Here is the input.
Amino acid sequence: MTKDESALAPYAAFPSRTRGRLYQEPPAEGRTAYQRDRDRIVHCTAFRRLEYKTQVFVNHEGDLFRTRLTHSLEVAQIARGIARALRVNEDLVEAIALAHDLGHTPFGHAGQDALNECMRPYGGFEHNLQSLRVVDELEERYGAFNGLNLTFETREGILKHCSPENARRLGALGERFLQKRQPSLEAQIANMADEIAYNNHDVDDGLRSGLLRLSQLDDVPLFARHARIVRASYPGLSERRLIHETVRRMINALIVDLLQETRARLAAAAPRSIDEVRASPPLVAFSDTMRAEHEQLKAFLRDHLYRHYQVMRMANKARRIVRDLFSAFLEDPRLLPPEHRERAQREGPRGIADYVAGMTDRYAIKEHRRLFAVGEI
Ligand code: MG
Here is the structure.
């Protein structure tokens, strides 16, 4: 055990005991294996593209909405706080959180659904698997290997879901999906931090955009309860401050509840190592009451924000752009820029999906215009 590791609980991920990288490399001086993973993620191209990719809103709609980059930073910040409180590895949760959305297509879920549809005859498209593909294959930064050559534990955390079919192809990394085992606590924390982050920032962005009204949230107990406390503590508070005070209290309440429930589960399961964590039922969780409230919030966002007619219109356009691009390239790969044409020659439709998935929102819109707008000739 190194000096850095002495503060960790026995069930944490210890960098000195990592299951290692696909390509052997000498250890980095002055950094642990997971710090090195995090640094590689921050420096990669796909990470910078997150700035121009969005989930609910299209990137150019406003400067104040979350992008996937700010979302990933919020996830990392929440996840690190939880990891520190539970004495597990902060560097590993940070690496997982910063990488978790690297494989996302332009235009969030609408883009991913469209690309999945296009790729159905060729093995489908899953954004989690694509995040792994980015760090394992697509980044071109090293002389000796493709991808970033991250540790097993970071890759395990990135691969949140996976179909049994794909799991079988993935060897050691896919095993847990077939054996129904859990990933490390660090991966479980990053996953829950993702949910906490997006549900709360979507409330904030939804209100800011005017697609949600404050009065609608009276039906969401988690929001209404905290808003009531804020109103009582600060009579006459402006709406903007009321929203921010309420959202930050909701985030805090979710984290406090998560810590309490997770500590109780850890005490009951008493795992003595990361492998015992993997063999236990899920350990990072909300209490039943909080889970129910959190589900209500999610359902509210689904019904009132993600299915808002203006969001549906954007999603419809986004799907059309992705479908059009994919079909045009599939029909005639000579339309692809040279490096992507080579990839498409080597890998077929998967190479085209990689190109489309890598696009930012605005790049996809521009590329669509270049291919289809007659006035651009
Ligand atoms: Mg996310």
